[in-house]
Amino acid sequence: MVSRGSERPVAAWIDRERRGNGVVPALTLILKSGGCAWNRCLMCGYRHFRFPGDEETLTGLIRGQLSWVDGRFPADGYGVVKIFTSGSFLDPGEVPVAARREVLARFRGKEVIVETRPEFVTEEAVGDCMAVLDRGSGAVSFSVAIGIETSDDGIREKCMNKGFSFDDFAGASRTARKAGAGVKAYLLQKPPYITEREAIDDVIRSVADVRPFADAISLNPCTVQKGTEVEHLWRNRAYRPPYLWSVLLALSRAGPGIICDPVGGGTPRGPHNCPKCDEELVRGIRDYNLSGDRSLIQALLELDCGCKKEWEFVLGAERPWAMPFTG
Ligand code: SF4
Ligand SMILES: [Zn+2]
After folding, report:
1. In angstroms, rounded to a whole number, what is the distance separating the alpha carbons of residues 118 and 37?
2. Which of 90, 131, 156, 263 is 20 to 30 A from 320 via CA?
């Protein structure tokens, strides 16, 4: 459900997430807000959803979307809420504090995860969110989700222009945990300017580096979003999203507990192999996501298809093209 009308979120849907040995319905909300304060990552199309205004206007905008959600998604239909804003939910310039409190109050009793850049993860902001969510029992399930993307500061800077460091992420993780919140980390497989092989190695290294600072890790294979530098490169045949074989290999080598939803899987703009095997592999990765059964990843990786030879050739033959360190 995607919309640009003022009272509707950018998107809202319910899917399923694994928790422990079971599966729970999860509501994902992408709320319209003032827009991302950073606004310059090379792969990000969401940053174009910007609705700047004064505090009152922004609060009204958020309130309108909450009512819309209320009317369409009954509260007993989900146990987890994931809130995105095309930026940072904890940025008070994007989501005024009063509006933030209204959103959180609406989801008391749920497991709530909000996406934010690390600079907005302060003891004050996290503490305030926890206080709003607390119904008196002290049992609050609140996490901040941070798109650290990779643990390599060079790749994050040169290939994504993300504008923060691994140390910033680690500091935000410590702050969130001190205030009683959990931490979810998003990793990005294959930003532009690195090879298929480098991207696999980067995911494996990043998972190991991020583990001590995150309670959950989600791997996002890169997709070509509209109006981005990545799209420009892709149109000029200078970028290809990762092969699904590479996603499987990264998942198999990175160890247990990694979530992965191959958004756009099997399409030219998303992670893909070839039309013959795409559907089966995307379905298999989604099944793994819900079951956590790692033998499934291994079984998928051992399947054969004509495109596997092409992928193996790419892994062995692609060479990196260096970017200058200095301007
Ligand atoms: S990826 Fe996040 S930080 Fe970067 S421009 Fe998009 S919304 Fe902003
Ligand atoms: Zn194939």
Report:
1. 12
2. 263
Quote the pTM value: 0.95
pLDDT in tens, 166-220: 999 999 999 999 999 999 999 999 999 999 999 999 999 999 999 999 999 999 9
The position carrying tokens 């989604």 is: 286
d(CA 227, CA 239): 15
Q: Compute the distance between CA of residue 113 and CA of residue 124 in angstroms, rounded to an integer.
A: 17
Q: How far apart are CA 185 and CA 130, in angstroms?
A: 19
174 to 51, 106, 161, 162, 317: CA distances (angstroms) = 32, 27, 24, 20, 41
| Residue type at position 231 | E
Pair of tokens at residue 305: 């298809």
Residue 287 pLDDT > 70: yes
The whole-angstrom separation of Cα 198 and Cα 237 is 19
- Name the phi and psi angles at 108, rounded to 5: -55, 140
Name the closest ligand to CA 279: 2
**CB under 5 Å of ion ligand 2: residues:** 273-274, 276-277, 305, 307
Mutate to test the pocket of ligand 1, among 114, 116, 117, 119 (most ligand atoms within 8 A of CB): 117
